[in-house]
């Protein structure tokens, strides 16, 4: 099993959407039985909460199932997951700060997995304080990043 965790600040907007989009991408490619996929927040602000209604609305619009309860990432997760992918540089810095020295996880930006020059920045911006268009942009980015992440993993693990 290849284990992948997506991380944003509160685990209600970007990371649960990333989890849902990547799981859908994996499922459609026929690899569901080879992956353990989850998402977390670096903060404890929303533990137990469902995804933001706009994340749910956006996923539903694109026929991508989303079902998650917010949780906070802990140092122990760095020994469980192969990939821990941050949505932005602040969350990446927080992940690098809490990662134990024994971490097996590749900790990086999810935006590292994209076609060259598609997006000027690798950052999945927090849409929380904006309108639905920010969630749509996130969905577009996450869909592309998911395809390239899956391609990379399939090659690396010879799936």
From TrEMBL:
InterPro entries: LMW_PTPase, Ptyr_pPase, Ptyr_pPase_sf, Tyr_phospatase_low_mol_wt. Residues 2-152 form the Phosphotyrosine protein phosphatase I domain. The active site is at 8 (nucleophile), 14, 126 (proton donor). The keyword Hydrolase applies. GO terms for molecular function: acid phosphatase activity; protein tyrosine phosphatase activity. One of its GO terms (cellular component) is cytoplasm. Keywords: Cytoplasm, Hydrolase, Protein phosphatase. It comes from the Eukaryota. It catalyses: O-phospho-L-tyrosyl-[protein] + H2O = L-tyrosyl-[protein] + phosphate; a phosphate monoester + H2O = an alcohol + phosphate. It is found in: Cytoplasm. Its main location: cytoplasm. The keyword Hydrolase applies. SUPFAM superfamilies: Phosphotyrosine protein phosphatases I. Belongs to the low molecular weight phosphotyrosine protein phosphatase family. PANTHER family: LOW MOLECULAR WEIGHT PHOSPHOTYROSINE PROTEIN PHOSPHATASE, LOW MOLECULAR WEIGHT PROTEIN TYROSINE PHOSPHATASE. This is Tyrosine protein phosphatase. It comes from Starmerella bacillaris (Yeast).
């Amino acid at each position: 099993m290849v284990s992948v965790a997506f991380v944003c600040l509160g685990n209600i907007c970007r990371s649960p959407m990333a989890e849902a989009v990547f799981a859908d991408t994996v499922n459609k490619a026929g690899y569901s039985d080879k992956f353990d996929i989850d998402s977390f927040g670096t903060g404890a602000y929303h533990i137990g909460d469902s995804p933001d209604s706009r994340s749910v609305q956006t996923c539903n619009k694109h026929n991508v199932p989303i079902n998650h309860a917010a949780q906070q990432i802990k140092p122990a997760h760095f020994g469980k997951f192969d990939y821990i992918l941050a949505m932005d540089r602040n969350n990446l810095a927080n992940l690098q700060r809490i990662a134990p020295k024994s971490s097996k996880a590749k900790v990086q930006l999810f935006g590292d997995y994209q076609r060259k020059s598609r997006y000027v920045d690798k950052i999945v911006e927090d849409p929380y304080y904006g309108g639905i268009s920010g969630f749509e942009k996130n969905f577009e980015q996450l869909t592309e990043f998911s395809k390239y992440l899956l391609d990379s993993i399939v090659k690396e693990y010879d799936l």
